[in-house]
């Protein structure tokens, strides 16, 4: 007997995909709260809750663009051509909500390795992405905008000694139709282990 009880959530997981080009309307406050609450359900060894989020919207997105693009150019990154800067600003002009993402490093916890804290944070972000899709919004995880530059991290309140900065989630209404993703068959990535190989 085949159960259809979870068919809708499973279908949502199978059809989620990144959507870079977004526009208003943004999620309503209660919808954004649902997305962020979904992050709290991430697997989390030691219940450290290492994820940290900062919501950026309205005029603050423009201020972030000024800060981040200036720092990228100051870093000497030759990829930041005038054309690239123009396209980034145009992209951000349409994005109604950004969430800055970081992992708080628990230096004193010897039981939970830092990589497990990082994995928990990544899982929390994936929950936000899935929740956004299930609520009918598009989302895109960007590691541009000076993600790996300390002045950008610190301006957002994430000191590099205590946080690992992981980029930004852009969330909004898809600005154009996005075709379904061509997903690989999971069999290509799965094998079964039955015991040690004989020497």
Automatic annotation (TrEMBL):
InterPro entries named among the record's database cross-references: NAD(P)H_nitroreductase, Nitroreductase, Nitroreductase-like, YdjA-like
Required cofactor names: FMN
Keywords attached to this entry: Flavoprotein, FMN, NAD, NADP, Oxidoreductase
Pfam annotation, one family: Nitroreductase
Record note on cofactor: Binds 1 FMN per subunit.
One Gene Ontology MF term: oxidoreductase activity
Domain of life, source organism: Bacteria
Binding-site positions, FMN: 16-18, 45, 141-143
UniProt KW Glycoprotein keyword: no
Domain Nitroreductase stretches: 15-172
EC code: 1.-.-.-
PANTHER family given in the database record: NAD(P)H NITROREDUCTASE YDJA-RELATED
Family: Belongs to the nitroreductase family.
Stated name of the protein: Putative NAD(P)H nitroreductase
Organism: Bordetella genomosp. 8
Lineage of the organism: Bacteria, Pseudomonadati, Pseudomonadota, Betaproteobacteria, Burkholderiales
């Amino acid at each position: 007997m085949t159960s259809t009880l979870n068919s809708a959530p499973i279908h949502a997981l199978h059809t989620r995909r990144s959507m870079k080009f977004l526009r208003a309307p943004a999620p309503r406050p209660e919808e954004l709260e649902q997305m962020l609450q979904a992050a709290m359900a991430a697997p989390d060894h030691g219940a450290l809750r290492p994820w940290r989020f900062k919501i950026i919207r309205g005029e603050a997105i423009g201020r972030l663009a000024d800060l981040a693009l200036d720092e990228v150019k100051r870093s000497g990154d030759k990829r930041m051509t005038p054309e690239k800067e123009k396209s980034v600003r145009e992209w951000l002009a349409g994005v109604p909500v950004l969430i800055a993402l970081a992992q708080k490093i628990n230096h004193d916890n010897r039981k939970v390795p830092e990589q497990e804290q990082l994995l928990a944070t990544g899982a929390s972000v994936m929950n936000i992405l899935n929740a956004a899709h299930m609520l009918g919004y598009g989302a895109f995880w960007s590691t541009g905008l000076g993600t790996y530059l300390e002045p950008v991290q610190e301006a957002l309140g994430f000191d590099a000694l205590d946080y690992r900065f992981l980029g930004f989630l852009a969330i909004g209404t898809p600005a154009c139709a996005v075709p379904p993703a061509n997903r690989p068959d999971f069999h290509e990535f799965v094998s079964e282990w039955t015991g040690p190989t004989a020497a």
